[in-house]
Amino acid sequence: MTKPIENILPVAPTPFHPDGRVDEEGMRRVIDCMIDQGVDAICILANYSEQFLLSDEERTLLMRLSLEHAAGRVPVIVTTSHFSTQVATARAKLAQSMGAAMIMMMPPYHGSGLFPAPQGIFEHFQAVNDAISIPIMVQDAPLSGVTMTVDLLARLARELENVSYFKIECPFAADKLAALIEAAGEHIKGPFDGEEAVTLLADLDAGATGTMTSALFPEKIRPIVASYRAGDTAAALAQWQKCLPLINHENRQCGLRAAKVVFKEGGVIASDHVRHPLKPMTERTRERLLQLARELDVMALSWGK
């Protein structure tokens, strides 16, 4: 991959049958729908893919299936996070061998209090960097409980050739993005945000070149990034304001369940099942989600009908 990935690279949900089995045909339909949404890349096996509820065998199945079905139509980013450096390295090597364009990793953590010192985190990424030749995206997210300082992130970018993308979705992400770009900008191909684009305008102001959202409605969010980067900040702001109620509802009320509910409503997948101990969203939350999605004429609501 020579041209940097920019704009929007959403996370694919993992569809399950009502009994909890992986829905392989549903996964293919998810990939097709996301490509029709005009995404610039697709991220699989991420937190919003319920990666923490998948077995190793299911991960391998979904990775192979997704990469084969995407068939080069868009780049596919595979999340390979694990506390074990050995496991994270093996996952990254397997992803590359199957055709992944990039991998994404969180820092090693287990629970809220078991994580290495900064040097251990650096060595974790270094081991993976040395084992593969495709880009690595560092995911800096509150879920890990790990504080990754700008100095550490900049060191990763400067000293590890493949570490060239950063997804910053911690509190005050814009300030952190700006500081990271100032510290290591020439080594960074892709400064991104996350959190369903809830802080997207501020993050674009800080220098972000794209966003990693859910698969809920990337066709409506991508124009925000494209307009902003083309210099039309007024159009970017206007589109973001249109999208913000749905972004906020997804981010604060629904989480990873939002894309599944909308995808089921639109016939993309047959079931919006989430694996236990996760629970379905309440009917009240679901009704508001679908109302906001209909008002925006979200593509996924009609894709399979």
Descriptive overview:
- Helix 3 packs parallel to helix 4, helix 5 packs parallel to helix 6 and helix 8 packs antiparallel against helix 9.
- The chain starts with 6 loop residues before the first strand and ends in a 10-residue tail after the last helix.
- It is α/β, with parallel strands linked by helices.
- The radius of gyration is 18 Å and the shape is globular.
- It is built from 11 helices and 8 strands.
- The longest helix has 22 residues.
- 46% of the residues lie in helices and 10% in strands.
- It holds the Pfam family DHDPS.
- Belongs to the DapA family.
- Keywords: Lyase.
Biggest β-sheet: count, sense, barrel?
8 strands, parallel
CATH structural architecture: Alpha-Beta Barrel
Helix-strand sequence: EHEHEHEHEHEHEHEHHHH
What helical percentage do the residues reach? 40-55%
What integer is the average pLDDT?
96
Rg computed from alpha carbons, rounded to a whole number of angstroms: 18 Å
Family: Belongs to the DapA family.
Keywords: Lyase
Binding site for pyruvate: 212
GO molecular function: 4-hydroxy-tetrahydrodipicolinate synthase activity
Notable features of this structure?
305 residues, alpha/beta, eight-stranded parallel sheet
In short:
With 305 residues, this protein is of the alpha/beta class. It is built from eleven helices and eight strands.
